[in-house]
Amino acid sequence: MTKIAVVEGDGIGHEVIPVARKILGILHPEYEYFPVDVGYGMWERTGCPCADREIDTLKTADAILFGAITTPPMKDYQSVVLRIRKALDLYANLRPVKGDGFDIMIVRENTEGLYSGIEEITPDRATTLRVVSRTGSERIVRAAIRLVQQRKGHLTIGHKANVLKSDVLFRDVCTAEAKAAGVSFNDKYIDALALDILQHPASYDVVVTTNIFGDILSDMASYLVGGLGLVPSANIGDRYALFEPVHGSAPDIAGQNIANPIAAIRSAAMLLEYLGDREGAARMESAVSRVLAQGIRTRDLGGSAGTREFGDAVVSELSREP
Ligand code: NAD
Predict the structure, then answer these.
(1) Sequence-ordered strand ranges (E) for 229-286
(2) Which of 62, 222, 237, 267 lies 20 to 30 Å (CA to CA) from residue 274?
């Protein structure tokens, strides 16, 4: 039986994930869904945001549907999201940004770079080590190249090799792999790339970059489609896969039933695609589009529908289909 771990996490994760879970349950009532509690809330209750036991439980799932986790700016608090990505070796973070006339897939290296977790803090100096390895660069660019081949598209390599030695390695590895695979590619400095994506989104297909650049680039690119409430993501490794909205726990709007659940629903659609149900994924996407076309929108998109009401509208669209 297909097993899905459901992690609501913190903040609006408690609101948007139940909507996505309900929709998944309608399309796949035969899956086994089980909750896993990790995050800041868990830390407040138990003093531990994510124990080895939870990691082991996550590893039993065929796929993980994940909300968002609050990471408080406390010196000794270790990010749960980073811990899970590392423990499950979810090295490829795929963040699709699709809109009118453009379809960009941002492929972000997810396990090293500036988020390698190697830091030193003294009262007068704080250091974060940015690690870029040949192996890490090879596997992420190969994942990006597979997507380019599937999409019959183009690869853009985003880096800052003019300043960072670590990105010289990243750029050179990516370039060599792209040449060897025979795909169409170019490379751009990340700052120029950020502006150009906003100005000419239709010129881009698959964009591969390092960890923090991919994080920032995808939040920025969400501007093209209406904001963070719309952009989903997949975190894929060789053995495990986790699907989550690009947005965080949004404490500023949590508990008010106003968060947009589309990013969570689309993350669930990516999960279905990963499990081989392309048709189910397309049905979810199409139901979301039809609800938007009816003018039903959450507050971030200028509407007045609540999180649950938007979810119910998607559910009723799904049931209208033959
Ligand atoms: P955020 O994405 O939570 O929120 C940024 C802004 O976007 C906020 O104004 C928020 O209200 C809005 N927003 C986000 N999602 C929305 C949605 N679905 N509908 C409507 N509006 C939405 O980012 P932040 O404020 O920088 O971070 C808040 C917390 O989330 C922090 O603790 C951060 O560490 C954490 N975070 C977690 C993840 C993750 O779990 N993968 C990712 C990013 C941030």
Answers:
(1) 232-236, 241-245
(2) 222
Q: Which helix (H) or strand (E) holds 264?
A: helix 262-274
Whole-number Å distance, alpha carbon 226 to ligand 1 midpoint, is: 15
Tens digit of each residue's pLDDT (9 = 90 or more) over 140-195: 999 999 999 999 999 999 999 999 999 999 999 999 999 999 999 999 999 999 99
Q: Which of 40, 91, 115, 204 is catalytic?
A: 115
**What's the full length of the chain, in residues?**
322
Span 115-134, pLDDT tens digits: 988 999 899 999 999 999 99
**Active-site residue 215, yes or no?**
yes
**Choice from 115, 247, 256, 258 to test ligand 1 binding pocket (greatest atom count within 8 A of CB):** 247
Structure tokens, 302? 């200028």
In the three-class reduction of DSSP (H, G, I as helix; E, B as strand; rest coil), residue 62 is classed as coil
Q: Report DSSP letters for 155-215, one per residue.
A: EEEEE-TTT-HHHHHHHHHHHHHHHHHT-EEEEEEHHHHHHHHHH-GGG-SEEEE-HHHHH
From the candidates 10, 91, 160, 167, give the one annotated as an active-site residue.
160
Contact 97, 224 (CB under 8 A): yes
**This prediction's pTM:** 0.95
